[in-house]
Amino acid sequence: MAAATKAVESNWFQLAPADGGGIAGARQADAAMSGNDMMHSPSFWVAIALLPLVYMIVGSVVGLFGTPWSEDVRSAIANGVVGMVIGALAGYYFGQTTSRNRTQAP
């Protein structure tokens, strides 16, 4: 461990990410993978995989199936769902507006 620590401390200015891209490399890899087609975007498929869980929880709380929930639990879950939706929309909007206005590094 001491030898590894000494090696890193002596060459810290020469160390670089193994993939050679960092955040910019990740963005390029995602663009190359999706090819401007939403059906090939990993983010799209993760969202599709998680949406049934949301529908099952909301459907159960509003009484479409399952046993009835108490009023306080229904209120808490409704507030949580509304808060998450508003947070997701605000986060998406903030991310889009800040990344669009950012200039590329020279």
Give structural notes.
The chain is mainly alpha-helical and 106 residues long. The chain contains four helices and no strands. The chain has helices at 2-10, 22-34, 42-62, 71-100. It is elongated, with a radius of gyration of 22 Å. It starts with a helix and ends in a 6-residue tail after the last helix.
Number of strands: 0
> N-to-C SSE series?
HHHH
Total of DSSP H or I helical runs spanning 4+ residues: 4
Radius of gyration: 22 Å
Structural class: mainly alpha
Helix content: 55-70%
* Overall pLDDT level: 77
Low-pLDDT runs of 5+ residues are none
How far apart are the first and last residues' alpha carbons, in Å? 38 Å
| Biggest sheet details | none
Percentage of residues in DSSP E strands: under 5%
Tell the overall outline. elongated
Compose a concise summary of this entry.
By secondary structure, this protein is mainly α.
Record the SSE blueprint.
Elements: H1 2-10, H2 22-34, H3 42-62, H4 71-100
Q: Which keywords apply here?
A:
106 residues; mainly alpha; elongated
